[in-house]
Amino acid sequence: MILKDIYIYPIKSLGGIRLESAILEERGIQLDRRWMLVDENGNFLSQRTYPDMALIQVELSGNELVINNKKTSQRPLSIPFDDGTEELISVQIWEDTVQAQVVSEEANTWFSEALGMKCILVKMPNHVERKVNTKYAVNNESVSFADGMPFLLIGQSSLEDLNNKLSVPVPMDRFRPNFVFEGGDAFVEDKLKTIKIGASTFQIVKPCARCVMTTINQETGEKGKEPLKTLSSYRTINNKVMFGQNMVLIEGAEVRVGDTLSSI
Prior knowledge:
Blueprint: E1 2-8, E2 17-19, E3 21-25, E4 28-29, E5 35-38, E6 56-61, E7 64-69, E8 77-80, E9 88-93, E10 96-102, H1 105-115, E11 120-123, E12 151-155, H2 156-163, E13 179-182, E14 194-197, E15 200-209, H3 228-232, E16 236-237, E17 240-251, E18 254-256, E19 261-263
Parallel strand pairs: 12-13
Antiparallel strand pairs: 1-2, 1-13, 3-4, 3-18, 5-11, 6-7, 7-8, 9-10, 10-11, 12-17, 14-15, 14-19, 15-17, 16-17
């Protein structure tokens, strides 16, 4: 089994970026979901409620993020990695409440225009710890603004198995993984526990429950019924539709496309 793709999603629920190599941190790949959009009350925004977020693309350029809106002719927005005000606000992400740093008024204005609602761009300060659920943590890990876990792994064979059951196949971006590997049987990741990718070691801790976000076309922002409808017909466990495996980092600093993935 070989690592085929690496993805990060710097701003939660916006477009992803494919990398050739990635620096690993306890809370996830470096830059992955370190920024997030919230409403006036500090509640996180996602494509589940605002599917047009799929049309806001993020790129890396030097030491900054460059944001483009595919839906409108808005000028691109540049956000240096170290950009941030002194204002800290409480934000809510699922059951967690954490402190987050307001990035800039310019960013707030840009995203409010893009989404047609008042919103605030925040980032996670290095000193803030959002702990992984103790039920799944191995070494009391922290996580970024991801839904709950630092890393998500999916096998390409698993997607091919699903697409063989669909009338219109879907791309991997519907599932927003961090790591995609090729080789092995469909859903072989369900049977793995501790793995090595290159020289780095990960612990698989729980399957990933999927939601309506998988039904949003990442190119158009349109919402349908698939692939969740088909996936639910054969991947439902305890009333949850499972696809992919969540992981925490045990040790390691970097992974690269082409690294061998093996069970240990």
